[in-house]
Write a structure and sequence with these properties.
Blueprint: E1 10-15, H1 23-27, E2 33-34, E3 38-40, E4 47-54, E5 61-69, E6 72-78, H2 84-94, E7 102-107, E8 113-126, E9 134-141, E10 147-149
Antiparallel strand pairs: 1-2, 1-7, 3-6, 4-5, 6-9, 7-8, 8-9, 8-10
């Protein structure tokens, strides 16, 4: 992906998982529901956990790279009580679809697409703002690395 602005980036959600965890599986998902009024998408990626062992005889520390954690992405939203995508996020947190795995699709302005799966960890609305009611939603990425599709 070449340097570009984030303006024009879209987020879409789907209740469920792809038939296969590859570009073809995600491309086959239909229909995606666009999440409206997304103000920000955080960095995506993962981190490996580290375990160390200090040998008392030699004093040398041995390091093992262990499990991988794909972390949580906190979405910044402008709350819209009528937006179908935001409703999907709310329902995925504490509604009828709570704890269900969801698929997500991020489309960048140059046409590149990133796919992944997650569970909805939180959904909050803040009505104390003087201009817009803000919302935030935590997507707990739960298994494989994001798949990038060429434009």
């Amino acid at each position: 992906m070449a340097k570009q602005t984030g303006i024009g980036t879209t987020l879409e959600m789907y209740l469920g998982e792809p038939g296969s965890y590859d570009i073809g599986g995600f491309d086959a998902i239909t229909p995606w529901t666009q999440v409206g009024f997304v103000e920000g998408l955080p960095a995506a990626g993962g981190a490996a956990n580290e375990d160390t062992f200090a040998d008392l005889e030699t004093g040398v520390i041995d390091v093992a790279i262990t499990t991988i954690d794909y972390g949580t992405q906190t979405l910044a939203l402008g709350a819209d009580l009528t937006d179908a995508g935001q409703t999907l996020l709310k329902e995925g947190f504490d509604g009828a679809n709570a704890r269900a795995r969801h698929s997500y699709k991020i489309t960048y302005p140059d046409g590149q697409i990133r796919y992944g799966t997650c569970k909805i960890k939180s959904y909050d609305e803040d009505s104390t703002a003087t201009a817009f009611i803000r919302a935030s939603c935590d997507l707990r990425r739960d298994n494989k690395v994001l798949t990038k599709a060429a434009p």
